[in-house]
């Protein structure tokens, strides 16, 4: 499904290439800031998508003498500044790096642009761990008020719906109508596997696909960079032509990995969700979800890497006993039931021990390479680039964690006290009040302990 919106400060078109055609035909020279789905951040992919979009601009814009400029993180800022000084017609950028140039340069300006395009708008405008608010505010403050703004998204979120209602001018809105959220040519299946033996099933699946279709390309999606790297190392041990793509890799390494996969030098790409959006690799026949996506829209973006442009494709999701509810949520969103994929379990059991041993060897090797330490170093570098003190940020996060823990404990204590009080009241309601014991007759105080006689009173004896 695709959706897009715009108005006078906005208009819309079906895709980025259509925007190029309309813009260049109506004006020989124009400028555009095209924001990709991600920003300058070591955990997210934006450069690959930006370069892919730039290729389309170059193909369609060559007869018009179109000049473009790519501004993404991980590349030399000085060289990028020189490119910007040549006044390109089109700037394809990630929000973080474009905002960096606006903050650090007194000469670079986007005050005269006529078109602002936001691709993957649902991701750009969502808040949370990937919050682009600060960068977008910097960019929007630098662009002219009179411009055409275009938003594109494969998934329509509540934020985009709210934005449509908040627009000062009535925006044009278009949404592709389809009975299901995924294409008909996509065969979607699930494989129910125990959590502890998931890797053995994965190796068996790949072996079957390689035996039956040697020329097929496969993308395997994982949930973390570490898992991505471990699986890549593990599959290479089994002599599968595998390359990894995740945000812990340098930008040039990611470009090289993607180029090798596109050119079929490597037939298997293991990637995190950085590769789930926008990347167009037409020859992918199979997508395997090593983990069940936590959100249906992530699933839609992942499986969208295959069955493109009318081609056939297959998507298989490895589902553990803990993921059943996630599958139901996905089925409800895509309006389609996933069919079960069957394998020969006896063959999986034959390779189980070998796979577990190889996986453990790869984990030890990765630990020796200080993979987790490199991740922390990258985080510190990112904080420094954002103008923050890593030590102060760590201290702030530690204090915040303590406050959260204290609040959690207090909440638990309150809940425990309320439960005790509730149980106590229920107990009193369920049992009649105890009867007071009857007073038994006993010796009187006077007979047991005779009072002394008052002075001047005759004795009873």
From TrEMBL:
GO molecular function: ATP binding; hydrolase activity; RNA binding; RNA helicase activity
Signal peptide (residue range): none
UniProt KW ATP-binding keyword: yes
Residues covered by region (Disordered): 405-461
UniProt cross-references to SUPFAM superfamilies, sorted A to Z: P-loop containing nucleoside triphosphate hydrolases (SSF52540)
PROSITE patterns: DEAD_ATP_HELICASE, HELICASE_ATP_BIND_1, HELICASE_CTER
Enzyme Commission (EC) number: 3.6.4.13
Subcellular location: Nucleus, Nucleolus
GO cellular component: cytosol; nucleolus
Homology family: Belongs to the DEAD box helicase family. DDX49/DBP8 subfamily.
Full protein name: RNA helicase
Species of provenance: Hipposideros armiger
Lineage of the species this protein comes from: Eukaryota, Metazoa, Chordata, Craniata, Vertebrata
Annotated gene: DDX49
């Amino acid at each position: 499904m695709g959706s897009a919106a715009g108005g006078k400060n906005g208009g819309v078109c079906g895709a980025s290439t259509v925007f190029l055609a309309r813009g260049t035909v109506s004006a020989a020279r124009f400028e555009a800031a095209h924001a990709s789905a991600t920003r300058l951040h070591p955990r997210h992919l934006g450069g690959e998508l930006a370069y892919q979009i730039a290729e389309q601009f170059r193909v369609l814009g060559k007869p018009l003498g179109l000049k473009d400029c790519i501004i993404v993180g991980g590349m030399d800022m000085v060289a990028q500044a020189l490119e910007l000084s040549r006044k390109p017609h089109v700037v394809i950028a990630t929000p973080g790096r474009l905002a960096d140039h606006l903050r650090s340069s007194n000469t670079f300006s986007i005050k005269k642009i006529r078109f602002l395009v936001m691709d993957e708008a649902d991701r750009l405008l969502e808040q949370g761990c990937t919050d682009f608010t600060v960068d977008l505010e910097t960019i929007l403050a630098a662009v002219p008020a009179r411009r055409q703004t275009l938003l594109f998204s494969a998934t329509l979120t509540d934020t985009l719906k709210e934005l449509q209602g908040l627009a000062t001018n009535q925006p044009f809105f278009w949404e592709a109508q389809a009975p299901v959220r995924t294409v008909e040519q996509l065969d979607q299946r699930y494989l129910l596997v125990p959590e502890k033996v998931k890797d053995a099933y994965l190796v068996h699946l790949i072996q079957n696909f390689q035996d039956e279709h040697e020329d097929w390309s496969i993308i395997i999606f994982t949930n973390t960079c570490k898992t991505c790297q471990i699986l890549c190392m593990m599959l290479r041990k089994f002599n599968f032509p595998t390359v990894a793509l995740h945000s812990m890799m340098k930008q040039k390494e990611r470009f090289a990995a993607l180029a090798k996969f596109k050119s079929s030098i490597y037939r298997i790409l293991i990637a995190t969700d950085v590769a789930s959006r926008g990347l167009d690799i037409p020859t992918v026949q199979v997508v395997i979800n090593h983990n069940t996506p936590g959100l249906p829209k992530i699933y839609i973006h992942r499986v969208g890497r295959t069955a493109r442009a009318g081609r056939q494709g297959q998507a298989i999701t490895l589902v553990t006993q803990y993921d059943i509810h996630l599958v139901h949520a996905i089925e409800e969103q895509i309006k389609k039931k996933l069919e079960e994929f069957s394998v020969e379990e006896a063959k999986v059991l034959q390779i189980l021990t070998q796979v577990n041993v190889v996986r453990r060897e790869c984990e030890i090797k990765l630990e020796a390479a200080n993979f987790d330490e490199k991740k922390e170093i990258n985080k510190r570098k990112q904080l420094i680039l954002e103008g923050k003190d890593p030590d102060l940020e760590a201290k702030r996060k530690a204090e915040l964690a303590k406050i959260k823990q204290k609040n959690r404990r207090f909440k638990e204590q309150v809940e425990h006290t309320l439960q005790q009080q509730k149980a106590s009241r229920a107990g009193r309601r369920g049992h009649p009040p105890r009867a007071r014991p009857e007073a038994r007759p006993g010796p009187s105080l006077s007979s047991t302990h005779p009072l002394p006689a008052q002075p001047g009173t005759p004795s009873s004896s």
